[in-house]
Design goal:
Layout lengths: L5 E6 L3 H10 L5 E7 L3 H10 L4 E2 L3 H5 L6 E4 L6 H10 L3 E5 L6 H14 L3 E4 L6 H11 L6 E9 L19 H17 L2 E10 L5 E10 L4 E7 L8 E5 L3 E4 L7 E5 L6 E6 L7 H13 L10 H18 L11
Parallel strand pairs: 1-2, 1-4, 2-3, 4-5, 5-6, 7-10
Antiparallel strand pairs: 7-11, 8-9, 9-10, 11-12, 12-13, 13-14
Helix pairs in contact: 4-5, 5-9, 7-9
Bound molecules: NADP nicotinamide-adenine-dinucleotide phosphate (NAP).
């Protein structure tokens, strides 16, 4: 990698890959160098939309490309694990979409490999890197909310009208938890710290995936996380963080552009935290990756390997308890 330019490759040319390609075009010092899809024609169409990066015939060819520094994995969930292993074994830094992998054992395996290879591995939980979230952390550190007691959030999108789609497909690792519920869980982890235990209830639909779900987490250093996620009901993407002195609210946690700190019953606004960056939220993932590479890190301080392993553990506990039976082949090491 040259010092001034980070060259990215994208594996999987689906919906979220377009957003990352657009973000890469906005950040100086980063360039989309090559793309690959299962079907090279699809990759060629994608490349034509995004400034004509090189098109590689296969994922394997992309991962072996000596001109690529970082691979962004944008495939469906059950394909993350083998691709992360291949990418790290090819000497690439990896930014992988959430959820990192399907099980805790897989998370430990990819983290072990990243450490052994001394390569950056980031679970692309983009909310972690958003300016308003960083401002909120600073406000909390300055004592603005007092002692945190609860983090409540929802990610429910409805969407029965859009059937059939990936989220309802067990063989494509669908389900409300892995696609959506991961956000409330990760938010509680981010603000309340390590999770001690989780209690959850969910409903499995006709296709075998969880469609409706709620959980409560208790955290090692105190506080409760309360999260809901759903594919059935049209809900919110809102968050509320309660402290002993004040609360923080945002109508949209994914990502929050504006967070209001206010008193409870009095409803008095204390401060409004705003993301004035004026860029798409994925730009912050790109910038975080650039920072980590420049500092020689193998993990992001905002989304550490320990946090990814912990998330994988509690996601796995939850989908297993809900009764979702993902194909064994997707859970294997
Ligand atoms: N950060 C966010 O806001 C956000 C939002 C949505 C999704 N995501 C995450 O991004 C990732 C991709 O989601 P998406 O919505 O972009 O998914 P998608 O468009 O349905 O699929 C992404 C890619 O996965 C591969 N794929 C699809 N079906 C497959 C199958 N049956 N077998 C093998 N490969 C298959 C395809 O790669 P090819 O192009 O190579 O064929 C496809 O382009 C997921 O991890 C998801 O959770 C993140």
């Amino acid at each position: 990698m040259t010092e001034s330019l980070v060259r990215w490759g994208i594996c999987g040319c689906g919906s979220i890959a377009h957003r990352m390609a657009r973000a890469l075009a906005q950040v100086p010092g980063h360039r989309l160098g090559a793309v690959a899809a299962r079907d090279p024609h699809r990759a060629a169409v994608f490349a034509a939309d995004h400034g004509h990066p090189q098109v590689r015939e296969t994922y394997r060819e992309l991962l072996a490309d000596p001109l690529i520094d970082v691979v962004y994995i944008a495939t469906i969930h059950n394909h993350h694990y083998p691709l992360i292993l291949q990418a790290l074994n090819s000497g690439k830094a990896v930014v992988c979409e959430k959820p990192l992998v399907m099980t805790e054992a897989q998370a430990r395996a990819v983290v072990d490999l990243a450490r052994a290879k001394n390569l950056l591995l980031i679970e692309a939980l983009w909310v972690r890197f958003q300016p308003a979230v960083l401002q909120l952390h600073a406000a909390i550190a300055a004592g603005r909310l007092g002692r945190l007691t609860m983090v409540r959030s929802d990610f429910s999108i409805g969407g029965d009208h859009k059937l059939p789609d990936r989220k309802h497909d067990l063989t494509r690792a669908g389900g409300a938890l892995l696609d959506l519920g991961i956000y409330p869980l990760a938010l509680a982890q981010d603000f309340l710290g390590p999770i001690a235990e989780i209690v959850s209830l969910g409903e499995v639909g006709g296709t075998g995936v969880d469609e409706n779900l709620g959980f409560v987490t208790r955290h090692v250093h105190g506080g409760l996380g309360i999260g809901t996620a759903g594919l059935r009901g049209v809900g919110t993407i809102a968050m509320e963080i309660y402290g002993s002195e004040a609360l923080a609210v945002s109508p949209c946690a994914c990502p929050p552009r504006e967070i209001t700190l206010r008193t409870g019953w009095g409803n008095q606004t204390l401060e409004v935290l705003r993301d004035d960056s004026g860029v798409d939220g994925f730009v912050h993932t790109v910038r975080e990756t650039g920072r980590c590479l420049a500092e020689g890190r193998i993990e992001s301080p905002r989304m550490t390997h320990a946090q990814s392993i912990e998330l994988a553990h509690f996601l796995e506990v939850t989908w297993r308890k809900t009764g979702v039976a993902y194909p064994e082949v997707d859970l294997a090491l």
